[in-house]
Amino acid sequence: MQSHTVIGGGGIRLHVDEAGNPHGRPIVFIHGFSQCRLAWSRQMVSDLSRDFRLIAMDLRGHGLSEKPPEVYGDMRLWAEDVHAVLHTLGLQQPVLCGWSYGGVVICDYLSVYGEDAIAGLHLIGAITSLESETAMAVVSPAFFALVPGFFSTDVEESLSALQAFLRLCTQGEFTPAEHYAWLGYNASVPPYVRQGLLSRVAVHHPLLPCLRKPVLITHGDADAIILRGAAEQHAAAIPQAQTSFCPHVGHAPFWEDAPRFNRELRAFIASLP
C-alpha cells in the first residue's frame, strides 16, 4: 500500500491510498458521507489487486485529508478534487466508483470535466443530486432523524447519532472491532463538515441522460439509508446502465457481500472497451 498527498481544489491537501497492479486499469473508490477510504478495505486487499490499480481517496473534510471550514458548498471544488487525483497520479481511463454521497461527488466531476478522461462509472447505494423533493425522497426518514446529531458539537449527542447511523449502514451486525473502527473514522469528521455536505445544493438530474460511458448501479435490497427507488431512478435516467440488486444486503454491499461486489465489478470492467 502506498500513500499520496494530492493538492485538490482551493489548495486543500487530500490523502489517497494506492494498492494493486500499477499497470492495471485504475479503479478510483470514492466513499460516502462521514466515512473515509478505509471503508474500501475489502476491495483494496482483495484479488482485485492482482489485476487493477486500486485508488481510495479521502474526500475533503474526511479521513486524513484536510478539514478546513466553509469549503464544502462549491461544486467546482469537489470536481477539482477528483480531477487532481486523476491528473496527479496519472490515471488513464479509470472507473469511478462512488458510494452513497460519492455519487454526488462523481457527478460534480462530470459536470465540470465531462466523461472523456474516464472509462465507466459504478454507483453504489448512491445519490446524485441534493436539491429537490424528488432527489431527497429516496433518502430514508431514519437517516433524516439523525441529522441534528450529525451537526451537534456535543460529544455524547454526536456519538449517539453516529452509532445509530452505523446500525443503518448494514443489515447484519458489525463485529466489535469493525464497529469501533468505523465509528472512529466517522467521529473524526467534524460536525461542520457533515453540515457542509448536507447543506449544499447539487443539481445533476439533467446530466444523467447525457452520459455516454458504461454505468453499473449496485444497490442493497435492504438498504435502510438510500432507498431502492434511487437506483431505479438512476437506471431509468441512464439508458445504458446495468443494475445489480443485492439480496439480504444493506447500504454497504462492497462490505457486506464483498465477493459478489468484487466479482461484479471485475466483470463490468472486463466489458469495457
Automatic annotation (TrEMBL):
<dbReference type="GO" id="GO:0016787">
    <property type="term" value="F:hydrolase activity"/>
</dbReference>
<keyword id="KW-0378">Hydrolase</keyword>
<dbReference type="InterPro" id="IPR050266">
    <property type="entry name" value="AB_hydrolase_sf"/>
</dbReference>
<dbReference type="InterPro" id="IPR029058">
    <property type="entry name" value="AB_hydrolase_fold"/>
</dbReference>
<dbReference type="GO" id="GO:0016020">
    <property type="term" value="C:membrane"/>
</dbReference>
<dbReference type="Pfam" id="PF00561">
    <property type="entry name" value="Abhydrolase_1"/>
</dbReference>
<dbReference type="InterPro" id="IPR000073">
    <property type="entry name" value="AB_hydrolase_1"/>
</dbReference>
<feature type="domain" description="AB hydrolase-1">
    <location>
        <begin position="26"/>
        <end position="160"/>
    </location>
</feature>
<protein>
    <submittedName>
        <fullName>Alpha/beta hydrolase</fullName>
    </submittedName>
</protein>
